[in-house]
């Protein structure tokens, strides 16, 4: 199988960290999305959304969307990590918090960066006002995340899960791409980030 990726992008980083947690490696195919490698007819024929990461199985079946790829490996690789939860309640809590972090944090951050920077203005309409609104939504979400981490060692509960991978990537993206001083403003996020950063999979 092959994993098509642009290693620096948040979605590809999520898959890479997840695979490291499972102790799995697969053949990688590097694509340059800024140069439009994902816009070729060949790639779009394989990928439902035309984006990276995309996993191509040996039989030609393809999977896109980073969480779907993570779920595939979690189900096909024997492991006791419970990165999507271990029972009905914890699985529901992981799903709940994952959607919260993605929609209120990570995706809002993507919209802020893309619309404010115009990085993909050659292929999409960039609206500065929407970028500013999206950045405001990121800023509004951060206190909620900090409050959660005041109550819990990890975002979805007492154990490390895929939500912590996504949240870690989101916090780093907010700090670097959006220039928000997250760890300087939010002590609980800062404490949690230091703990997560020490995991071998994040090195």
From TrEMBL:
<dbReference type="Pfam" id="PF00043">
    <property type="entry name" value="GST_C"/>
</dbReference>
<dbReference type="InterPro" id="IPR010987">
    <property type="entry name" value="Glutathione-S-Trfase_C-like"/>
</dbReference>
<dbReference type="InterPro" id="IPR034346">
    <property type="entry name" value="Gtt2-like_C"/>
</dbReference>
<dbReference type="Pfam" id="PF13417">
    <property type="entry name" value="GST_N_3"/>
</dbReference>
<feature type="domain" description="GST C-terminal">
    <location>
        <begin position="87"/>
        <end position="203"/>
    </location>
</feature>
<dbReference type="InterPro" id="IPR004046">
    <property type="entry name" value="GST_C"/>
</dbReference>
<dbReference type="InterPro" id="IPR004045">
    <property type="entry name" value="Glutathione_S-Trfase_N"/>
</dbReference>
<dbReference type="InterPro" id="IPR040079">
    <property type="entry name" value="Glutathione_S-Trfase"/>
</dbReference>
<feature type="domain" description="GST N-terminal">
    <location>
        <begin position="1"/>
        <end position="81"/>
    </location>
</feature>
<protein>
    <submittedName>
        <fullName>Glutathione S-transferase</fullName>
    </submittedName>
</protein>
<dbReference type="InterPro" id="IPR034345">
    <property type="entry name" value="Gtt2-like_N"/>
</dbReference>
